[in-house]
Amino acid sequence: MVKLNKIYTRTGDDGTTGLVDGSRLEKHAPRMEAIGAVDEANSAIGLAAELPRAAAHRSVDAGKLSEALFRIQNDLFDLGADIATPAAEGDDFAPSQMVLRIVAAQVDWLEARIDEANARLEPLTSFILPGGSEAAARTHIARAAVRRAERAMVALAAVEAVNPQALAYINRLSDYLFVLARVANADGADDVKWVPGANR
To answer: Does the residue 103 lie in any domain?
Structure first.
């Protein structure tokens, strides 16, 4: 159970921050870049979730969408905890009572949601611009933020061990948000297509 009585601690005034295992590192370190990018993505998803939540009383689909996004926000806190727990030597990234890790079931849930949402859509014949309805535009902003988080996590994985399921989760999440943005655009009917070289 997390208990926060005091918001500021002054322990980070020297430019370092603490990790789950008690170690400290610089706030600009690759691990902190990844944690921060996941936090930004979570905030963008929170913004995307507000429109369907407001519409949930009018639409069952909107209510289900809002529930899915709030579930993802919770998973992203799990992901942040995973990244904030450096792997010990010989770590197989299995979760335990003391260590929170992203697991295959969380990735599987996202894949099922992608398949479910994509089944409603006609195949794309063109790249689409990140817009259309407000709900779709917000979802595309969240998707782009998730892509940035994925790049930060991959950069971390180039220098330190990262849970493979965590990498799979963040990759699937951007795919899910892409199809969700199309669903928000009247199941793709209101997608804005890219016209190459249209303004030359």
So the answer is: yes
